[in-house]
Amino acid sequence: MNNNNEQLEFKATMGVSKSINYWDLTISRNINKIEISVYRKVTNANITIQYTYIHPWDHKRAAFPHYINRELTLSITEQARTQEWENICNKAQQNGFPIKVIQNVNEKEITKQIKRPTRKTKKKQKKQNKQTTKIG
């Protein structure tokens, strides 16, 4: 693989204790299953734009919908989900955000998840549209 492009260098990584970090995930192999959790480098500083800074509101809160959406959509254990929520709240508090603000963002993201169509509903809608087109 390393011969394909001089700009890219692939290195083999050995998993430690049956887990490997890939992008922002830790993938662990247990006896009968694979578990996923959020990975953070040791250099992670938990910094976002401070709540009190003079910036547009959308810029200040931009990171949190991403973090919360990731927490809601990853196939992680309930324990990992709880830990991730605690990490999000800690990050918010370290950057001066009132916890109520983050809870409101969380509620909005949950509402979006509920309203978002699944693959099955998309396929069903597509099939219904085809049938409607044939009739009309």
Question: If you had to describe this structure to a student in words, what would you say it looks like?
Answer:
This protein has 136 residues and is mostly helical. The protein has one domain (19-117). Helix content is 49%, strand content 10%. It has five helices and three strands; from the N terminus they run E-E-E-H-H-H-H-H. The protein has helices spanning 57-61, 63-73, 78-94, 99-115, 119-135; strands spanning 19-22, 25-29, 34-38. A three-stranded antiparallel beta sheet has the order 1-2-3. Strand 1 (19-22) and strand 2 (25-29) form a beta hairpin. It is extended.
- Helical content, roughly? 40-55%
Count of extended strands: 3
Binned strand content = 5-15%
* General form: extended
In DSSP terms (H or I, runs of 4 or more residues), the helix count works out at 5
Strand order in the largest sheet: 1-2-3
- The SS-based structural class is mainly alpha
Task: Give a quick summary of the entry.
The protein has 136 residues and is mainly alpha-helical. The protein has helices spanning 57-61, 63-73, 78-94, 99-115, 119-135; strands at 19-22, 25-29, 34-38.
